[in-house]
Design goal:
Elements: H1 6-15, H2 29-33, E1 54-58, E2 64-69, H3 79-91
Antiparallel strand pairs: 1-2
């Protein structure tokens, strides 16, 4: 999910040959609800609304069962951390 426009997301997915949809949240409403809003960004800039990087693991029933998020936009959850979260999810079923 990004705060970019649908047109920008479309352009990005075509350029990078991404086969899955990227969700648009131009007003950062859902970004706020998920607790991902980067509040260090000046609200007067065009970058306000950007989320912290994050990954959600969602169960087949639609329940968020894990949230991996980083404070710094340059950091991303590691593949190992994501796999561990998925493994934990499978163990708890």
């Amino acid at each position: 999910m990004t705060y970019d426009s649908p047109a920008d997301n479309s352009k990005f997915t075509r350029k990078h040959d991404i086969a899955f949809p990227i969700l648009t949240d131009e007003q950062s409403e859902h970004i706020r609800r998920f607790g991902l809003l980067n509040e260090t960004i000046d609200p007067a800039t065009r970058y306000f609304g950007v989320p912290h990087p994050g990954i959600f693991i969602i169960s087949p029933a639609g329940k968020v069962v894990a949230k991996l998020a980083e404070e710094n936009y340059r950091d991303r959850p590691t593949v190992a951390a994501v796999l561990e979260a998925v493994d934990q999810r499978l163990l708890n079923d």
